Amino acid sequence: MSGTFVGMPAFPSAAREALGDTQLRRNLAHATRTIRDKRAQVVGEVEEWEELRLAGAGVKEAALRDLATHLETLEESLTRAGATVHWARDAEEACAIVARVAKSHDVDEVVKVKSMATLEIGLNDHLEREGIAAWETDLAELIVQLGDDLPSHILVPAIHRNRAEIREIFRRRMAAVGRPAPDDLSDDPAALAGAAREHMREKFLRAKVAVSGANFAVADTGTLVVVESEGNGRMCLTLPDVLVSVVGIEKVVATWSELDPLLRLLPRSSTGERMNPYTSTWSGVTPGDGPQEVHVVLLDNGRTRALADEVGRQALRCIRCSACLNVCPVYERVGGHAYGSVYPGPIGAILNPLLRGVEDEQTASLPYASSLCGACFEVCPVRIDIPSVLVEQRAAVVDSHRSDRVPKAEAVAMRAAAWTFSDSRRLRLAERASGLAGRVLGRFSRTTLPGGRAAAGRLPGPAAGWTGARDLPAPPEESFREWWDRTDGGRADGEEGRS
Amino acid sequence: MNARDDILRRVRSALDGVSPAVEVPTAPRVRPRDHADLVDLFDERVADYRAVVTRCSSDDLAATVAAALDGARAVVPPGLGLDVAGAVVDDPSTGGHSAAELDAIDAVVTRAAVGIAETGTIVLDHRPDQGRRAISLVPDLHVCIVDASQVVADVPDAIALLDPARPLTWISGPSATSDIELDRVEGVHGPRTLHVVLVG
Ligand code: SF4
């Protein structure tokens, strides 16, 4: 009953279609503006935010660089705590393991906590083919599932839907799969949340098997962590007899105390809260409390491929907060579906090619789904330098087209970019030149970007294909370096940071 | 080769020549404060999530909890250490209440393991004074008793005190969602009302 991204067109055509959808653009602009403001406020509260980011990046980077050791430790601790550990090389293997566990308990349904890993492996479709209904229990996932729709945001998969649309989906679809929506359902968010509570509760109370992911997996203690808001996670992790958690191998941190910077960074970056309403942690089986049969599926599915990429490896630090989506001018305009993957936005633009390679046209188009403005790096709680990885991925796309007779426009541009980025003096000159262009483009602006920056409309010449479907941010008249020099990093004229 | 060995082999070959030594900077700590200020901050931050906070002395605890329940029928853990009129005890040694039985009960009263001032969070580690995870989840009103001495400054202080071998539930305000237009709404699947009774 859920859609699939398979066969999505490459980013440029999908983006052009999305841009024509004004409702979508309005929903997105409203939602991302709200969340950006909330994030900025709670991040501003933490005096040593930059030090915290360094600590968070350090914890994840250290875990990745000694991943084999930590995975073996994790397996040992989990087993000691009474969990059964499975390993899955790819989506197919992972889905088969989950289905096997469910079938061994003779169930025809499972309840699910929102999980990127299970979306990535297409678990719901697989289970459906095996005659098992997988009920998404997160409100946004429920909206997506009932609407036979695709997720468009990591944190809020139904960000592209407004309240009136959600009310319609609930009224038309809930009855077919369980308790119907009340007849007088209004489009007030509280009433919609209430309808979801009623609808889901009977499913929670009868569920025998639950499926989850994990935000973190602590190697030395065998502890899994799920961070959530609604309590649907707690329901799934607590009430059923059997729990299966699908965990990407990059979720590992070495020690319990290393959770600290991450648990402080994630909620502030993600929902713009000091702390999310609920965080659950568990280590295997607790006698007399919660599921008495616990399985953990450790999933590769391309992660070792990404790990081998010297520049791209850092993408595996991602804690899926979605801050980079919310600040991205490209994402705000085209939405998540155009990326053709469960991982949209700036992180998706690097993660999908890293996990899957750039052989197919759809994935190969993703590293170009960015204006390299750098906002994503600034907000990333684990300091993933997305622009640098994008540049490297573009080079990889170009490499894979080396045998083409006519060089791609991007190939030519990327060679120039590589030459420019490799030397800081050249970069400074190039920034100054693009500042000049910014002044000219600013005059042709047809719109503005978040933060009030002018955006260029359709550019002439070889860039037309690119800007035909995008509002390219006009290069700032003053580059960051120039601004830094002039203001002593903002201290001189009391300027505030942009986020 | 089985999947496990294959994945571990791939990990090792991906990291061939990469040094595992990375310097991990220590996470910064908030400036130390007076404990009374911490308790005030905890009070303020819990209330900020639209949870109800009532402060009382240990002598007034029973009356304060009764007032918070306002006649609602409650389930309590076996080691609560407080008489709650009309409450049923969830006794894990006899299997405890089923989810459906808990669904028919209005409220739950528990203690907590730690309170975190900076984030307004209470953490349950589900010892006998807090009970099984299910009892503080299914009923719609959660009355949680926190002693002022349990309040710590920030997340790292809590992590240092908590035992990861136990299941932990970190609670910051009532159940909430921002899934509809990123508008925060309190009250989805978890208890829709969180009432923290802060003692001392
Ligand atoms: S890349 Fe960084 S900002 Fe983007 S979702 Fe991952 S952790 Fe968050």
TrEMBL record, chain A:
Domain LUD: 72-299
Region (Disordered): 451-499
SUPFAM superfamilies tied to this protein: 4Fe-4S ferredoxins, NagB/RpiA/CoA transferase-like
Domain Lactate utilization protein B C-terminal: 400-486
Keywords: 4Fe-4S, Electron transport, Iron, Iron-sulfur, Metal-binding, Repeat, Transport
Biased composition regions of type Basic and acidic residues, renumbered to the chain: 478-499
InterPro entries named among the record's database cross-references: 4Fe4S_Fe-S-bd, 4Fe4S_Fe_S_CS, FTHF_cligase-like_sf, Helical_ferredxn, LUD_dom, LutB/LldF, LutB_C, NagB/RpiA_transferase-like
GO biological processes: lactate metabolic process
Biased composition range(s): Low complexity: 451-465
Superkingdom per UniProt: Bacteria
GO molecular function term, any single one: metal ion binding
PANTHER family: LACTATE UTILIZATION PROTEIN B
Protein name per its UniProtKB record: L-lactate dehydrogenase complex protein LldF
From TrEMBL, chain B:
Domain (LUD): residue spans on this chain: 100-199
Pfam families in UniProt: LUD_dom
Source organism, top-level taxon: Bacteria
Transmembrane segments: none
Protein name, as recorded: L-lactate dehydrogenase complex protein LldG
